[in-house]
Amino acid sequence: MPTRKDIIMSKNNLKNKPFFILCIVIIIVIFAITSINKLDTNLSKTSLIEKYKLNNLSTEEIVETLDRNNEDYQGLSASITGEKLKLSDGKTNIELNIPKDKFYLSFAPYINNTHPCKKHNLISCRSELVNEKFFLKIVDNFGNKLIEKEVYSMANGFIGIWLPKNFEGVMEVHYNGLVASTKIDTFRGSNTCLTTPLKLR
To answer: Are 69 and 165 contained in the same domain?
Structure first.
């Protein structure tokens, strides 16, 4: 036979039951809304990548594709830092991680005209020497050669190269008897766009 204590506890449980059910319902609703928002965001990101036919490409491949063929991607903004590739079509924003051991530097030697630049925009950055051949030499601070080869500027007048992360050294560019030289580094906050120091003389 139930004791008085059992009856009181039973009544208290009945009183607490609606509150408990309400809490469960609130949790379920919050979880559902969060899941829907996350799904919408993922669909938007996928849609942006597919819209510009960049699906099935690695981050490095997307960077190289956009920098080389920027005329084909009007309406897209694509800027790169030492850590992220940031894409936007004005509605959807995407950030893709750059491999931790790599750094993308886009540089533009020039004779007459250039623009100040620190963070390279793969779509909108332009320089004057388009589709030209250069000789590039990069050495570290101890004089060890990292790169020594011919390179070609792209349709935007820039040359894009992948360098090791946390590198410090000197870049030297030769073009038709003219030379430009500057110090470079590839740390987390380093510039990914190199223009004004590369005036050919």
So the answer is: yes
Give the count of domains, the chain: 2
Q: Which residues contact 156 (CB under 8 A, 6 or more apart)?
A: 67, 70, 125, 126, 127, 130
pTM surpassing 0.85?
A: no
List pLDDT tens digits, range 101-120.
Answer: 999 999 999 999 999 999 99
Q: Which two tokens stand for residue 186?
A: 């590839």
Average pLDDT value for the chain: 86
Q: Are 85 and 39 within one domain? A: no
- 146-153 LR contacts (CB < 8 Å, sep 24+): 153/108, 153/109, 153/127, 153/129
DSSP codes, 51-102 = HTT-TT--HHHHHHHHHHSGGGGTT-EEEE-SSEEEEE-SS-EEEEEPPTTE
Same domain membership, residue 91 and residue 158:
yes
Residues 6+ apart with CB under 8 A from 65: 54, 57
**Domain residue limits at 69:** 58-201
